Amino acid sequence: MKAWIRLLAIGLPAALLTLADFSDLEGQRRRGRGGGGGFGDDLAAYQEYNTPYTGEFTFVRLYYRTGGWGRNPGWSHDWPVAERNFGEIMDALTTIGPRRGGGNVLAMDDPDLFKFPVAYLSEPGDWGMTEAEAENLSNYLRKGGFLIIDDMGGTRDLDWTEQMLEVLLPGLQFVELDVSHPIFDSFFHLEQSNIEMPHPYWGGVASYWGIFENNDPEGRLMVIVNHDNDIGDYMEWSDRGFVPIALSNEAYKLGVNYVVYALTH
Q1: CA contacts within 13 A on the Cβ side of 109
Q2: Cα separation of 118 and 186, whole Å?
Q3: SS in 3 state form for 56-91?
Q4: Facing residues of 119 across strands?
């Protein structure tokens, strides 16, 4: 077994387990299903835990209004534990030097979004945007930002995500990616068996979709969509024994690859 595989499979989950009481965010996560903070659509409540910009790589989760999820809207699912655990993994395995302990929540029209190279969007099946939010997020992507869309499954979610991305980036094609794309080899070398992981709840086989700058498949990938997958959930529960360690490992590998790709392209 390679050293880094052993580290993920044996060392890091045990280390992450010691972080269970890192802050009162853990208790907030337990308020309801899905790992959200229990603040509903109250953006200000989530942003109380944001930290000022320091130049460190910081996980950024995008907020959108849902109106139907109650205390744990889909965009917040797995917050803040997924980003906290992911930061520990990146700090242990890479030289990126990420901010540890969590991440920031930003609205799509927040000008501070441009300070951060990678943004994460959860459960796009209920994703909506105002005109101002769409304009700001579109500009962010066109100017070099990278968007990870996660926690989705089925035809409806995929079709809706494609429609929303057409609003953001009109004229750019939504295409399925295969394992030969450089994003799957940017840090960890992933094989087809690595990326064909099931969604943690409803199974299926994950697929990956994206949008390229200028519709050039050899150019910069601007967006990646994890369809029939939920790497955020695997990250959230990786220190709890709730999901298999092997699948959490694959989720972390994907997440690290996405960030390294975004920072180098």
Answers
A1: 11
A2: 15
A3: CCCEEEEECCCCCCCCCCHHHCCCCHHHHHHHHHHH
A4: 147
Beta-bridge partner residues of 211: 223
151 contact partners, CB below 8 Å, separation of at least 6? 74, 77, 78, 122, 123, 226, 229, 230, 232, 233
Higher pLDDT, 218 or 34: 218
pLDDT tens by residue, 238-250: 988 778 888 999 9
User: Quick one: 42 exposed, middle or buried, by C-beta within 10 A (0-12, 13-18, 19+)?
Assistant: middle
Q: Distance between CA atoms of 148 and 222, rounded to whole angstroms?
A: 9
Strand partners of residue 176: 209
Q: Note the pLDDT of residue 23.
A: 43
Instruction: Answer whether 234's CB lies under 8 Å from 191's CB.
Output: no
Q: What's residue 35's pLDDT?
A: 64
Whether the link from the prior residue into 170 is cis, omega within 30° of 0, is no
